[in-house]
Every structure is written in C-alpha cells, then in structure tokens.
Design a protein that fits this description.
CATH topology: Rossmann fold
Number of domains: 1
Oligomer: single chain
Number of helices: 6
Strand content: 15-25%
Shape: globular
CATH architecture: 3-Layer(aba) Sandwich
Radius of gyration: 15 Å
Order of helices and strands: EHHEHHEHEHE
Structural class: alpha/beta
CATH superfamily: HUPs
Largest sheet: 5 strands, parallel
C-alpha cells in the first residue's frame, strides 16, 4: 500500500504516529511510506524584510525541527519512509500530492498546531478531505 503521512509538530500528530506503530498491519512491511510536512509560508511582509538566505534557513530549520523526531520515531519501529517538505499551504499540497502521487491512503491527525481550526475537525483535515478522492485516515 502506498501511504502518505502528513505531519506537523502537534500533539495530535504525535498520537497519530503512536497509533500507527501500535498496529501490526502498519509496521508489518510491504508499505511504501512518504512523510510530508508542509512548511507554512511566512507572511509576505515578513519575508520581504529579511534577506533570502535568512528566510531559506528559517524554512529548512522548521522542516528539520518537525521531521527529525518523526524520522527517529518511525525508524525505531522499522518504518523507513521517504521524507518530503515544501513551503506551501499544507492542505492544498497534501491533497495535490495524494492525487498526483497515486497514493492509496492519506494518514493525518485531526488537528494541527493552529489554534484557528474548527472544533470537530481541523481546517487542514477538512480541506484535504474536500480536495482529494484518496481515502483519508484521520486520527483524533
């Protein structure tokens, strides 16, 4: 099964990863894993005030801060995914990747790090569900 796992640094994402590795089906092998982190773009004015290398360093540091512990955690459980990050609105890119990458499943948490998410289901999860025909497994 070809699986796209969307991650951020939220507590919900940590629970999602723990839930995945707790089930033998997911860790039993035979899956093609891709872990994706969408680095939210800086506001235009903030990015314009900084020099380009500072902005690039910020984006790289954000991606590494989120992906490093995920890489270590999944590795301890025998999952060796491909890691991808992109500067983008995360929901749109997750849906685009799910469709263009011909994934069998998208796995994500119900709420990310934004305090602005909807009460029952986070705004990123809602947008991904609306933007792809790929099945989405949402962990709460």
């Amino acid at each position: 099964m070809k699986i796209l796992v969307a991650v951020d640094d939220s507590e919900c994402c940590k629970r999602m990863l723990a839930g995945l590795v707790s089930q033998a089906f997911w860790t039993g092998g035979g899956h093609d894993w891709t872990v994706f982190h969408g680095v939210p773009p800086l506001p235009h004015r903030a990015a314009a005030l900084a020099d380009p290398s500072t902005v690039e360093d910020y984006y790289a540091a954000d991606a590494e801060r989120v992906l490093r512990p995920v890489r270590a955690f999944l590795g301890r459980h025998g999952i060796q995914p491909r890691f991808v990050h992109k500067i983008c609105p995360p929901a749109r890119e997750i849906a685009r990747l799910a469709n263009s990458g011909r994934f069998d499943l998208v796995v994500m948490g119900s709420h990310g790090r934004s305090a602005l998410g909807a009460a029952a289901l986070g705004s990123v999860a809602q947008k991904v569900l609306a933007g792809t025909k790929t099945p989405v497994l949402v962990f709460r």
